[in-house]
Automatic annotation (TrEMBL):
Cross-referenced SUPFAM superfamilies: FAD/NAD(P)-binding domain (SSF51905)
Identification of the protein by name: Flavin-dependent dehydrogenase
Occurrences of domain FAD-binding (ranges): 12-336
Bias-annotated ranges (Basic and acidic residues): 478-490
Recorded GO MF terms: FAD binding
Biased composition (Low complexity): 467-477
Superkingdom: Bacteria
């Protein structure tokens, strides 16, 4: 057989796999520092991606850091100045905390948002190559030294680089190829996610991000650009694949079980199909090693119930660029900087990770949560703390101080008819807290970095790691529904 054609070869300071939020943030930061940055993305750009795309004030502050906020605001999404949450007969109205002068949220569709980020990266000096699919990483000893990819014309290209950044989402080729699988910690979600867009009707309030809890169901309405409303529902997860007809049915049934959300959408016209993400799991992967790093969903993912993905992708993509810009060509210092960046993300995100997993349990509100809603409806400070947790200006520990916890238990015992249910809920919360502490001290600390896998390319046909080989601290994660496109879910 004739030899296969040799790959074209070139070099860069940094090659980034994935041009969306995390990859663009790293590219903007590094290119502005004067580095040669090449960004590869398998998709045509701009293009849509699976995403619920709510940005709290802290997320908008990240866009401001990158110099992209003005262009994102120009897309026309209305400022969301109010937050509303309802459950168990109680409604909580709050405003948002101010972050770097920004006091509102924004829900902007991903095609426009990602286009702004790509244009900002190009303006900073990064080279963006679309329809370029990475197939393997290049190695120099135990270091990642670049990538091999296939371009839109089918040609094979190799790029050597001091650093490879894998910002290629939950199904990351880079993560698989460098040996960052299985995750350090995985928590399967108790909820599936379905969403659709609706053409809003005149006179409806377009300044409020709203969420409703009814039974085990959760639903939202977020006004977004082009006069639309993004409406998401998260019913309890069910096993099995979810094709288009099943997604349509489950979405419609969940809307019917949430009367206030159905009323918000009354007289609105649905635009497009129902999109679905099922079999979700939240996780931390090992995210840094010799010559490589995994920002965004490639390294860390939280269930969309708390809408944290875009903010974290932007923030830790940017911080990654800032951490390595002075040490790119000094391997030992680069590796120390990568480890410090990884530790920072774990330290800053683990509390929200555990908080998100509480809300993703896919069950009806328990007595202590009902009491929290009851108290927050009449206590503005408690409501502000809760909204601040979602906005990342307050910590979950501020909500669960010993004094507040005692008041919640006492109030629940006073207002709930079933005393045993309150005590069972308290025992559950104590067990969950102990488990979270254990996970932080074991799975998220002191792990040996993975080494590059010996195979030349990321072969998707490789057999999965047997469950018996996984550490006991790792929960078995359900596979994501393969009828959903591989994408960064936000």
């Amino acid at each position: 057989m004739p030899d296969s054609p040799a790959a074209a070869a070139e070099s860069a300071d940094v090659v980034i796999v994935g041009a969306r939020c995390a990859g663009a943030a790293s590219a903007i930061t590094l290119a502005r520092a004067g580095h040669r940055v090449v960004v590869l993305d398998a998709a045509p750009l701009p293009s849509d991606t699976l995403s619920t795309h709510l940005l709290w004030p802290a997320g908008l502050a990240e866009l401001q850091h990158l110099g992209a906020l003005a262009d994102v605001l120009a897309l026309g999404a209305p400022p969301l100045t109010n937050a509303y949450a309802a459950g168990a007969g109680y409604g909580i109205d709050t405003t948002f905390p101010t972050v770097d002068g920004i006091d509102h949220a924004l829900c902007v569709r991903r095609t426009g948002l990602d286009d702004v980020l790509v244009r900002t990266a190009r303006a900073a000096g990064a080279e963006i190559r679309q329809r370029s699919r990475v197939t393997s990483v290049l190695r120099a000893g135990n270091r990642c030294a670049g990538v091999r990819y296939t371009d839109g014309a089918g040609a094979t290209v190799e790029i050597s680089a001091a650093l490879v950044i894998g910002a290629d989402g939950r199904d990351s080729t880079v993560a698989q190829t460098v040996g960052a699988q299985p995750p350090l910690l995985t928590v399967p979600s108790g909820r599936d996610c379905y969403y659709a867009y609706w053409r809003d009707t005149p006179g409806r309030p377009r300044d409020t991000a709203a969420q409703w809890r009814v039974g085990a169901d959760l639903g939202t309405a977020f006004p977004c650009d082009d006069g639309l409303v993004l409406s998401l529902v998260q019913p309890p997860a069910v096993p099995g694949r979810c094709g288009p007809s099943a997604a349509e049915r489950r979405y419609t049934e969940a809307l019917q079980r949430i009367p206030a959300l159905a009323d918000r959408l009354r007289d609105c016209e649905r635009v497009g199909r129902v999109r679905a993400a099922t079999g979700l799991s939240s996780y931390f992967r090992r995210s840094a090693g010799p010559g490589w790093a995994l920002p965004g969903d490639a390294g860390h993912f939280k269930d969309p119930v708390t809408a944290q993905g875009i903010r974290d992708a932007l923030r830790y993509g940017r911080l990654l660029g800032e951490a390595v810009t002075e040490v790119l060509h000094e391997p030992e210092r680069l590796d120390r900087a990568l480890r410090a960046w990884e530790r920072r993300r774990v330290d800053e995100c683990r509390a929200m990770f555990h908080w998100t997993n509480r809300l993703a349990r896919g069950e009806a509100m328990r007595p202590l949560e009902i009491e929290l809603y009851r108290r927050a409806a009449d206590d503005p400070e408690l409501a502000r703390v809760t909204t601040g947790i979602f906005s990342r200006t307050r910590r979950p520990a501020e909500l669960h101080t010993p004094a507040r916890a005692l008041r919640l238990v006492a109030g629940a015992l006073r207002h709930q008819p079933d005393t045993r249910a309150v005590l069972r809920d308290l025992a559950l919360e104590l067990r969950i807290g102990a488990r979270n502490i254990h996970a932080t001290r074991t799975a998220l600390r002191g792990n040996t970095p993975p080494v590059l896998t010996p195979r030349r390319s990321a072969d998707r046909s490789d057999p999965p790691v047997p469950r018996s080989a996984l550490p006991a601290t790792l929960a078995a994660a359900p596979r994501r529904d393969r009828s959903v496109p591989a994408a960064e879910h936000r």
